[in-house]
Amino acid sequence: MTAETNADSVVVGAGIVGVMAALYLQAEGRKVLLVEREEVAAGASAGNAGILAFPEIIPVASPGIMFKAPKWLLDPLGPLSVPPTYGLKIAPWLFHFWRASSRKAFAHGIAAQTEMMHLAAAEMRRMRETPELAGFFDTTGTLDLYDSEASFDAAASDWLEKEKAGFQFTSVGRAEIDRLQPGLAPQFRHAMYSPAGIQVNDPKGLTRAVADLVTARGGALRKGEVRDIAPNADGAIITLDDGATIKATSVVVAGGAWSKTLAARLGDPVPLETERGYNTTLPAQAFPLQRQLYFNDHAFVVTPLSEGIRVGGAVELGGLELAPNYRRSKALLAKAARFLPDLKTEGGREWMGFRPSMPDCLPVIGRSSASPAVLYAFGHGHLGLTQSAATGRLIGELAAGRPASLSLAPFRPGRFLRGG
Ligand SMILES: Cc1cc2nc3c(=O)[nH]c(=O)nc-3n(C[C@H](O)[C@H](O)[C@H](O)COP(=O)(O)OP(=O)(O)OC[C@H]3O[C@@H](n4cnc5c(N)ncnc54)[C@H](O)[C@@H]3O)c2cc1C
């Protein structure tokens, strides 16, 4: 067994949340070791849609969702699916999701997300101003499209909440939609346009660039799977899959959808599940895309990236083990071709990723009950890229023992426990 004693702060997982946590820990004067079992950006951070969705403060767990969801489930390739073999396993998570959709919990979720998103926007601005990272951001605006006046009207209360939270957008009709994005199918006559919408043009590249920054500033990256974290009086001893151990003064668990096992071993049973998402990245010449398009009635997006056009979204509650069902990416692509009739659908690359999702749609950011030296940063669901820099900041503050920039109560790991 080998022991390494030079680690001060260890971050488990080099997705966007882990590398941001590492960057902010460094800013607090910590010497950081990132431990990743595969490579930087091996998980959800590699292939997401790249949207910095700061206005997305409305939790999916919302009043009435449990009546809408069964209708979506009827279509096995629709916006939401549960593979039959996973039906029973997802039941406890769905129970918490149902509880999180009460009016009170929903209002609490909006308040928590609003604070988080303002911090997220401020911290991501710092990233955009960092010379090594600036090239990964495009401000092209976001167009939220609706199939009908009825669905546009049904979303009015959500937009009101976003307006109250200080986000800016304008309602646009067909003429303006045509100007903002020529080539859409005729049914799209109602949309919201957010001119400040920001796109990360290469989510994997950004994650790698942040990891490079961490190493350039004196941090280290080590390959290995963390199997155990054993807190002690000086911090924790981390055991890797090859039997090596690392002594650390503090540890951050940022293993995305795989964080549940490590947290459970530490005595924190968090109801983390994965919402699997699918997409296809088409060559850039597939369509003259002007900006991010979100098809609200179908829960999928079409986004312009430096490598091409990414078409995807949807939610499959299928756990970490089942093989991907790429019929879902194909179904999304076929739908996109109906909505953008000139879209060339050939030559794409399909991908499936594991969103790390909590039932109340809020991340877990806080200390483990096992030790103040062990911190959690996972469970960001659909918003991990958006909230990564903010999470890094909060982790840095926790590690430094300074007051956090916002109340961490909504994000506490034990919130689903009885009395938690
Ligand atoms: C289809 C799709 C579209 C999305 N679009 C957007 C979007 O537009 N905007 C947005 O904000 N978010 C989006 N998301 C969500 C976002 O991608 C995730 O929330 C985010 O990437 C999570 O980052 P993470 O670092 O927590 O996890 P991950 O990126 O999954 O990284 C976790 C890392 O930890 C490593 N790891 C796990 N366990 C261990 C261990 N025991 N030891 C060592 N290493 C370990 C894994 O190998 C992995 O590299 C999307 C997700 C999907 C699937």
For this entry, give a set of tags.
22 strands; FAD/NAD(P)-binding domain; alpha/beta; binds flavin-adenine dinucleotide; 420 residues; D-Amino Acid Oxidase, Chain A, domain 2; 9-stranded mixed sheet
CATH class type of the largest domain: Alpha Beta
Instruction: Give the CATH H-level superfamily of the largest domain.
Output: D-Amino Acid Oxidase, subunit A, domain 2
Report the helical percentage: 25-40%
Overall strand count? 22
Number of helices: 12
Average pLDDT works out at 95
Low-confidence stretches: none
InterPro entries: FAD-dep_OxRdtase, FAD/NAD-bd_sf
Organism: Ciceribacter selenitireducens ATCC BAA-1503
GO molecular function: oxidoreductase activity
Keywords: Oxidoreductase
Layout: helices, strands, pairs:
Blueprint: E1 3-4, E2 9-12, H1 16-27, E3 32-36, H2 44-47, E4 51-52, H3 65-73, E5 80-81, H4 91-100, H5 103-128, E6 137-139, E7 142-146, H6 149-154, H7 156-164, E8 170-172, H8 174-180, E9 190-194, E10 198-200, H9 203-216, E11 220-223, E12 226-232, E13 235-240, E14 245-248, E15 250-253, H10 259-265, E16 273-282, E17 292-295, E18 300-305, E19 308-316, H11 327-339, E20 349-357, E21 364-367, E22 374-378, H12 388-400
Parallel strand pairs: 1-14, 2-3, 2-15, 3-11, 5-19, 7-17, 15-22
Antiparallel strand pairs: 4-10, 6-10, 7-9, 8-9, 12-13, 13-14, 16-19, 16-20, 17-18, 18-19, 21-22
The structure holds flavin-adenine dinucleotide.
Residues 12-18, 35-38, 42-45, 48-51, 53, 225-226, 254-258, 262, 277, 279, 312, 353, 355-356, 378, 380-386 line the site of flavin-adenine dinucleotide.
